[in-house]
Amino acid sequence: MHYPKKELLSPAGDYESFLAALENGADAVYLSGTSFGARAYAKNFTNEELQQAIKTGHLYGVKVYITMNTIVKEKEVSSFLSQVSFLYQLGVDAIIMQDIGMICLCKEMFPELEIHASTQCNCSTIESIRILEEIGVKRVVFPREMSLGTIQSIQTSLEKEIFIHGALCVSYSGNCLFSSLHGGRSANRGECAGCCRLPFTLLEKNKKINEGYLLSMKDLHTAPSFEEILKSDIKSLKIEGRMKSSSYVAYVTQYYRKLCHGEVPNSQDLKILKILFYREFTTGHLFGEKNLMNPRYSNHLGLLIGMVQKVTKKEIIIRLSEDLYQEDGIRFQKSKKGFVVNYLYDEHGKLVSSIKKGNLAVIRNTIGLTEKDEVFKTSSKHLEKSLKKVSKRKVPIEMTFIAHVGKKMKLLIKDQDHHVVEVLGSIVEDAKKSAVSKKEFYTLLTRLKDTPFQEEKVNLDIDSNVFVRLGDINDLRRRGIQQMIKKRTEVGKKPIVKSVSFSKNEKPLPKQMTVLVKTEKDIKKALFSHFSRIYVENQSLWEKYSSFENIYFALSRNQWKRTDHAKRIWSEELRKNAILGYSLNVSNAYSVYYLSKLGATSVCLSVELTDEEQEMLLRSATEKFGYLPIEMIVKGRIEIMVIKGNPLQIMEGKQYQLRDIKGNEYPVIYHDSITSIYQNKIINKMDQIHYWHSLGVSSFCQIK
Fold first, then answer.
1. In sequence order, what are the beta bridge partners of 270?
2. Which of 639, 646, 681, 676 is CA-nearest to residue 210?
3. Sign of the CA dihedral running 159, 164, 169, 171
4. Which of 366, 483, 573, 663 is deepest in the core (most CB within 10 A)?
5. What is the pLDDT of residue 434?
6. What is the pairing mode between strands 303-311 and 374-380?
7. DSSP string, 141-175
8. Whole-number Å distance between alpha carbons of 405 and 393
9. Are β-strands 236-239 and 281-282 bridged in parallel, bridged antiparallel, or unpaired?
10. Phi, psi at residue 463, to the nearest 5°?
């Protein structure tokens, strides 16, 4: 059956992984430079490697997307733009961004630059998609919390991209502040500490309800429902894994390439996936699966390969259910101890390089194992070596060779991307003795082994009695191939708007004391208080009380994804009095400026900024744009995780606590299909209001 063509998009954390993706069938690869990418701890690419990757990708018809999808602080704007300019001139196919200010600014400065909105942007309604269309984004990477049906229901001119495999975040991307506020490593800056992969204890009024890796999710694996994806209008299918090995990238790319061609994976395919990385699999929110968590394990589990039959101080004897090779990494489930099998013996004590399943394997007990246990394979040098045995990727070309007596011989080369080169050679002579045969011409023209190309079709238009020196034909072929390489990798000049003008608001804004409320009870209290504005997050409550002049709708990305059915969040009626919350991660003056131009009444600064960073932003905003509607949180408890559904299985509306391994306790509430985890302390900056107002903050918000 014919399905709409999909782009298979693979990850690369280093150049070896980039080549692995390219050789194993990726249509496009996404990667990052040494800064502004949301995987700061991957090896990543130097500028020289970025240049080589883009050139190599284009040579083989593979697109290269660069991730610059962190939030951008005021002091970084100049270097961010410099890097964008560098990539733009290299001919990058697209840059993936999160920061709304940088998206808007870059579209003005680099009008032909293709920008993709990162999953960190969390755009899940038609209204938010309309904003991206308005500011010139080409593609949106949909949140992993959305269902395939909902994504398909959104009618848009933007290309659609989804994740099809890899790690899942328990919190909505862009809305996890856990790592930042409790470890100083921002997930919005590519520095996530993986707090969700740590053990927690769930408490209700100090009574233990549950414990384990309560926030740890299984990994996404969409193969069981892949035909539904193939039928959809999704443009790009994305594999997560820029922190993974080149072997992982190679095989997972190969695996989904086969699925894109309609092949069905077998049990052996799944076993290899488990060896490479496995935390148990799920088809995720994409297909409405409910069992998404793996509270028993938070890291790589591997493939079950046998059971320990006997343990002594010196030896471990295992009955194998899968093959075991020397240099395989293994782990024992209960003890969680593991090592690489450097010495492998059969049941007769003979040192061997491998043992087949069904047999006994004997290994040295160097880890002090004391009990029988399940054995898992977590790595395999044998597998890695086999994955490197792959045919080199080739670009198909059509060659036409013309040789008529008395005229210069000619070679035309065409590729599937409509590039055409024409090269001329020496004058063709009349054969005085033996003519060059068509077979000889064909053999010489198709000597392409050491080139990126493979002949798809060869046309020979030659006289019957021609003589051409064989060296001249080789020279003609080499020159033709070099010109085709140049055609496929050359970058045309693109226009850059070097300066952008901004309107400046010279009129000071009045100081506002505001409050963010979540319940109807709090609304009623606030109506009779000193607050000049009351922010309501719940849309139905806002609509109920919208007749009051001081009631405003608090628009945050949290709201965009409360449910899978699209609510009218950033519609024209709401734009007139929408308040943009701190979860938009506004970290530079440009974001405030462009969001206010789009209609925001007030824009709250990111709670991840330090006092010094906020001060720099405010001074820059005043200098460039005058007075902007800037808001700051001055009192309350920050929501540090926003989770779809009820993974902790708690009662709706009741407050619980999550206790971490250091004894910190975080309030947890499940309400309106969302689980919210809050900071373990209340911030209070009420005594600093006068200072911040003098720097340009016009609105000060308390959270109830």
1. none
2. 646
3. positive
4. 483
5. 81
6. antiparallel
7. E--TTS-HHHHHH---SSEEEEEEEE---SSPTT-
8. 37
9. unpaired
10. -70, 160
pLDDT of the residue at 283: 97
How many secondary structure helices (H) and strands (E) does the chain include?
20, 40
Kindly report, as residue ranges, where domains of CATH 3.20.20.70 are found in the chain: 7-168+219-287, 512-637+682-703
pLDDT-derived band at 137, boundaries 50, 70, 90: very high
Whether residue 177 contacts residue 640, with contact meaning beta carbons closer than 8 Å, is answered with yes
Give the pairing of strands 7-11 and 28-31: parallel
DSSP label at 590?
H
Of the candidates 266, 361, 263, the one whose C-alpha atom is nearest the C-alpha of residue 316 is 361
**3-state DSSP helix/strand/coil % of the chain, to nearest 5:** 30, 30, 40
Q: Say which residue, 408 or 520, is predicted with more confidence.
A: 408
Q: In Å, what is the CA distance from 647 to each residue of 90, 176, 208, 209?
A: 45, 16, 17, 14
Largest CA distance in the chain: 109
Asked if 467 and 430 count as a contact pair (C-beta separation under 8 A), the reply is yes
552-553-557-560 Cα dihedral, nearest 10 degrees:
-170
In one letter, which amino acid is 166?
A: G
Domain with CATH 2.40.30.10 in the chain: 303-387
Q: For 91-111, how does the pLDDT look when each residue is reduced to its tens digit (9 = 90+)? A: 999 999 999 999 999 999 999
CA distances from 435 to 441, 462, 560 (A): 11, 11, 74
Calpha distance 248→130 (Å, rounded): 37
Q: What is the pLDDT of residues 194-231, one digit of tens each?
A: 899 999 999 999 999 999 999 999 999 999 999 999 99
What is the third-level CATH fold of 512-637+682-703? TIM Barrel (3.20.20)
The residue that leads in pLDDT, 126 or 270, is: 270
> Quick one: pLDDT band at residue 26, thresholds 50, 70, 90?
very high
Note the pLDDT tens digit of each residue in 234-261.
Answer: 999 999 999 999 999 999 999 999 999 9
Tell me the CATH number for domain 303-387: 2.40.30.10
Residue 595, classed as helix, strand or coil, is helix
∠ CA 190-193-196, rounded to 5°:
115
Tell me the average pLDDT across 160-174.
94
How far, in Å, CA of 200 to CA of 679, rounded?
15
**May I ask the CATH architecture of the domain 7-168+219-287?**
Alpha-Beta Barrel (3.20)
pLDDT tens-digit map of 534-554: 888 777 787 888 888 888 877
Tokens of 68: 């610059």
Rg for the chain, CA atoms, rounded: 30
* pLDDT of amino acid 577: 60
* pLDDT at residue 565, as a whole number: 28
Q: For residues 181 and 188, what is the distance between their CA atoms, to the nearest angstrom?
A: 12
The phi and psi torsions of 644 (rounded to 5 degrees) equal: -75, 135
Structure tokens at 602: 């007030």
Whole-angstrom distance, CA of residue 424 vs CA of residue 478: 12
Sign of CA dihedral 30, 33, 39, 41: positive
Which among 632, 602, 601 has a CA at the least distance from the CA of 618? 632
In the 8-state DSSP scheme, what is residue 582?
Answer: G
Distance CA 292, CA 167 (A): 12
